[in-house]
């Protein structure tokens, strides 16, 4: 069975699910996010309230089409006139290794390049996170350097469009 996902804007009530993910250290092994205290639903809700309407950010819930279930987040942060930084995590570990990360990446690239009309999307990934690197390379990202011990990867709109990756 193929798992299909869609993106929708994050909403405050998502905090009732995502706070659990914030407290699972296994999810954050390859990221810079390391919770230093227990994240309550109230803390997560307040954090979302402060971040959802920032003009230089677009935050989405990754949801299963068949079950209409929220399973992770993908976002475009530090958006400028020409680009932004992709962040992604699958909080529900039942869906790790199922192709969900690739689908969410492609949906975010469609949003960035076709709706926001950006020219560049970049990301930073831990060098030991081989599955993520594989996903990003499959999606058309190229390694462009290293930064703070992480691999920096970029996808240019012109290259992604040339590859035909954003066709429906």
Can you characterise this structure?
This protein has helices at residues 15-22, 41-51, 100-115, 130-138, 157-163, and strands at 5-9, 58-64, 69-77, 83-90, 120-125, 142-147, 150-156. With 168 residues, the protein is an alpha+beta fold. It has one domain (5-163): 3-Layer(aba) Sandwich (Aminopeptidase), CATH 3.40.630.30. It has a seven-stranded mixed β-sheet. Helix 3 links the parallel strand 4 (83-90) and strand 5. Helix 1 crosses helix 2.
In short:
The chain is of the alpha+beta class and 168 residues long. It is 30% helix and 29% strand.
Number of helices: 5
Report the principal-axis shape.
globular
For the record, the count of structural domains works out to 1
Number of strands: 7
CATH first level: which class?
Answer: Alpha Beta
Give the strand order, joined by hyphens, for the main sheet: 1-2-3-4-5-7-6
Order of helices and strands: EHHEEEHEHEEH
- Estimated share of beta-strand residues: 25-35%
Radius of gyration: 15 Å
Low-confidence stretches: none
CATH overall fold name: Aminopeptidase
Largest sheet: 7 strands, mixed
Structure classification = alpha+beta
- From the 3D coordinates, which CATH architecture would you assign? 3-Layer(aba) Sandwich
Fraction in helix = 25-40%
Output mean pLDDT.
94
Instruction: Quote the distance from N terminus to C terminus.
Output: 21 Å
Name of the CATH superfamily: Gcn5-related N-acetyltransferase (GNAT)
């Amino acid at each position: 069975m193929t798992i299909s996902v869609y993106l929708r804007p994050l909403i405050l009530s998502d905090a009732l699910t995502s706070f659990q993910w914030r407290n699972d250290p296994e999810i954050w092994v390859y990221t810079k996010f390391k919770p230093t205290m227990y994240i309550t639903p109230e803390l997560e809700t307040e954090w979302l309230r402060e971040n959802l309407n920032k003009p230089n950010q677009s935050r989405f819930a990754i949801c299963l089409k068949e079950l209409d279930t929220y399973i992770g987040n993908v976002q475009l942060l530090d958006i400028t006139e020409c680009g932004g930084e992709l962040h992604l995590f699958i909080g529900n570990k039942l869906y790790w290794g199922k192709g969900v990360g690739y689908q969410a990446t492609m949906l975010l690239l469609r949003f960035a390049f076709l709706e926001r009309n950006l020219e560049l999307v970049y990301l930073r990934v831990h060098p030991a996170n081989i599955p993520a690197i594989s996903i990003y390379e499959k999606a058309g990202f190229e390694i462009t350097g290293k930064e703070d011990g992480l691999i920096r990867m970029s996808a240019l709109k012109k290259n992604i469009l040339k590859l035909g990756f954003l066709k429906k």
